[in-house]
Each structure stands twice: as structure tokens, then as C-alpha cells.
Design goal:
Length: 419
């Protein structure tokens, strides 16, 4: 079925390019892709291979997924150019493959990195394709958070971001803070910037009975879901556990950490050094069923992300997933974190492990408050934040992209426009 307003002979076709995570593991990209498919679009995705996503080609739910190798895992500023160059090479190769096999009318680029505009810009200039920029991360702030400096590479990140904004026909922002960056730093016309939050799908996040074995014989379980990276602030969470166990004498708590990442082994070592490893379980990346078991068993969920310019402006998916499961939250006080969770969370002083421990203890010792906060969070997701409320914004962004006058590509001028 052709999407409303599409050419009569075929549906509009979209090519997603994402380098940060494999699909369908990248929840936001998969929700966007399936939403467009359900609206009548033809959809293809280019992404890296990853654990559980090793097939180089797969058709899933009517979506064509092309995966490429990404052998270089960036660890240090000099490693990133090698990773990005490898990804860019494969993205270019596969984009031409998708064009000839399926065709596409628009490229939907999901950062990081801010290099995909090189492909989007080429197809825009050559064949008149639209370029839609889905702004997932503030790359200059991400670089500064990782390496603590503003050097040549930071200035390069700023320039790449600016070029990406200038190339885009439409920008999709994950929240109002990112929208402001697109308008103020990127110079994008406000009418071309659409906020599409990464709202959870409630049909995936089921509320289930707790599974006692995940408590490891203890009364309370604290739950964490997310990437095991440097800027996620998990060191603060481990230090908070130390305060709870050593200083408050609590032997009734256990911490479940669900998620993988390059910093996982270092965090496990840190838990051993602090003497809290016996009260922690690092699950790594797990199937959805186990993830749901652990989080449904948790009494309190925590977001210890380090306060910095990146995290203050970013919406963390884990917060909305906690809220979807009716879990009260403790997190450091940040702009977008407070906007998302509201009264479903307690807010500790930024980057203060002792205050994080204090807020955790406060919630653990007040069952009625936990229940009330959890209900508030669940209701906010149901009424405002779930993907059901965000999908129309995505479709509106696409309608705006089609409303822009397409560039007359070089090949089109020669009568070679293709599909």
C-alpha cells in the first residue's frame, strides 16, 4: 500500500543508516523503522553487526537490514577516525546496493558519528534524494565528556555537526534541548526541526511478578539498565553502594546491573576494589525476558549518569523504561532527566555518590512512597511519553520532508535519476 501522497506506482522508500548499534537492538531506530513500514513506506536499514545480529542481510517484519563489519572498537581519540572511516566505507557500499536492489527516496541518518551527511549529501546532490537527520547524540559534548578537552578533534566535531545540519532537509530532535541546539548552533529553520522522543512501547515492557532469585537472598534490589561506558557514572553508583553497606551497615541490598559495553570489565574490577562485588551482579547484555525479570524485581531503579553538558541535555531511554515498569527512580539532577521523570524520581546532587546513597536509602525505607512514585511514572508514560504519542511526530517530520522541494540531482538533469 502506498503512503498517502506517494507516487501511485510505488510506496515511498527510506534508507536508515545507523553506526552506533545494530538493528533491531537499537530500540529507537527499530521503532521508527517499523512505524514507517506500518504507514506504508518501504524501509531498509544499514547498520553494523553485533551480538545476536550477525547476519549480513536479514528481512525482518518486512524491513531489509544490511549489516557490515566494524572491526575497530574506538578506545581513545585516535581510534575514532579509523572506526568512522571503516563504517563510512561500508555505508557507502551498502547504500548503492540498496539503491539498485530496492531504491530509496530519502536517507534517514542516525548519529553518532556526524559523518553520514557525506553519504546523504552525495545522494541529495547526485540523485535528488531527501536527507533527514535524526539527532541522537551531541557529538561535540560527547567527545568532551569522554576526553575532557576541547582540541582539534572537538573543533572537527563542531564543524561536522554544522555541515550535517546544513545538509538536512529535516532535523528530528530527541527533546527540546536538542531542538534548541539545532536551531541556535546549527542555524536550522525552526519549522524544519521536529521533536520525536524515544518513547517506549508499552507492549514490550510488561509489568511482571518479581523473581526472588534476582535478589540473591537480600530484601531489596536496586536495578540499573544501560550501557557500561565511561560517562554513565556507574562508578558513582558503586561508591553509593559502598556508603550504604559500609557506612550505613546495610546488608539487605543487592545491585543488578544490566547492559554491556567497553567499560564493563573495568567496572567489575572497581566493584572488587571497593569490596561491594558480593552485593552486585553484572548481567551484561541479556535477552528481553531476563531484562524484564530483573527490572520487575527491582524495588528502586537508578540512573547515575555523570553530570556534564551532554547528559544534562540528553533524554535517557532507561528513565522512561523504568517508568514504564512503574519503578521509582533515583538520579542526579539534570534538565532533561527532571523533565522526563518529574515526581516519579528523587534527585541527588550531581556527581555526589554520598547523596545518591542517601536518596536510595530514603526510598528503600518507604514502601508507600515507592509505590506512589512508580504509579506516577507509569501514568506519565501512558498519557504523554509512550511511542504511541511520538509516532505521529515522526510521520509529521516525514511529511515536512516531502513538502520541501527536492534538489535536482546531477543525474536527474541528465535523465538518469533512477529510483
Amino acid at each position: 500500500m502506498a503512503h498517502q501522497g506517494a507516487r501511485s506506482d510505488r510506496a515511498r522508500a527510506v534508507l536508515f543508516i545507523v553506526e552506533n548499534l545494530p538493528v533491531p537492538f537499537d530500540r529507537r531506530v527499530w521503532q521508527e523503522a517499523t512505524t514507517l513500514r506500518a504507514a506504508g513506506y518501504q524501509v531498509a536499514v544499514i547498520c553494523p553487526v553485533g551480538k545476536g545480529c550477525e547476519e549480513r542481510y536479514q528481512e525482518l517484519d518486512g524491513i531489509h537490514i544490511y549489516r557490515h563489519p566494524l572491526p575497530v572498537e574506538a578506545d581513545g581519540a585516535l581510534a575514532y577516525p579509523a572506526e568512522y572511516a571503516t563504517a563510512l566505507f561500508w555505508e557507502m557500499v551498502l547504500a548503492w546496493r540498496v539503491l539498485f536492489r530496492h531504491g530509496f527516496d530519502a536517507i534517514h541518518a542516525c548519529n553518532p558519528p556526524d559523518t553520514i551527511f557525506l553519504i546523504g549529501g552525495l545522494f541529495k546532490r547526485l540523485l535528488g534524494k531527501r536527507f533527514i537527520f535524526d539527532h541522537h547524540d551531541l557529538c561535540p559534548e560527547l567527545y568532551e565528556a569522554k576526553f575532557g578537552r576541547r582540541d582539534f578533534f572537538w573543533r572537527l566535531m563542531v564543524r561536522l555537526e554544522r555541515w550535517t545540519f546544513r545538509t538536512a532537509d529535516v532535523v528530528i530532535a530527541t527533546n527540546q534541548s536538542y531542538r534548541a541546539v539545532a536551531i541556535e548552533r546549527g542555524g536550522v529553520d525552526p519549522s524544519r526541526v521536529f521533536v520525536v522522543r524515544s518513547g517506549p512501547k508499552l507492549d514490550r515492557l510488561h509489568i511482571l511478578p518479581p523473581v526472588p532469585r534476582h535478589r540473591h537472598g537480600r530484601r531489596f534490589l536496586i536495578g540499573y539498565l544501560g550501557v557500561m561506558g565511561v560517562q554513565e557514572g556507574i562508578e558513582y553508583l558503586l561508591e553509593a553502594m559502598l556508603h550504604l553497606i559500609r557506612d550505613q551497615g546495610r546488608r539487605d541490598i543487592h545491585l543488578a546491573l544490566v547492559g554491556g559495553g567497553s567499560h564493563l570489565a573495568a567496572l567489575q574490577r572497581r566493584a572488587e576494589e571497593l569490596g561491594v562485588a558480593g552485593h552486585c551482579t553484572f548481567y551484561g547484555r541479556v535477552p528481553d525476558q531476563l531484562l524484564l525479570e530483573v527490572l520487575n524485581t527491582a524495588d528502586v531503579c537508578v540512573n547515575p549518569d555523570t553530570w556534564n553538558e551532554l547528559n544534562d541535555k540528553s533524554t535517557m531511554n532507561k528513565i522512561m523504561e523504568y517508568m514504564s515498569l512503574a519503578k521509582p527512580i533515583v538520579q542526579f539532577d539534570m534538565t532533561e532527566g527532571r523533565y522526563t521523570a518529574g515526581d516519579a524520581s528523587l534527585y541527588a546532587r550531581p556527581n555526589d555518590a554520598l547523596d545518591l546513597a542517601t536518596k536510595l536509602a530514603e526510598l528503600l525505607d518507604d514502601e508507600e512512597r515507592r509505590r506512589h512514585m512508580g504509579a506516577l511514572g507509569r501514568r506519565r508514560v501512558e498519557d504523554e511519553l509512550s511511542w504511541e504519542h511520538e509516532a505521529p511526530n515522526l510521520l509529521a517530520a516525514y511529511e515536512a520532508a516531502w513538502a520541501t522541494r527536492p534538489a535536482m540531482g546531477w543525474a536527474a538533469r541528465l535523465g538518469l535519476g533512477g529510483r
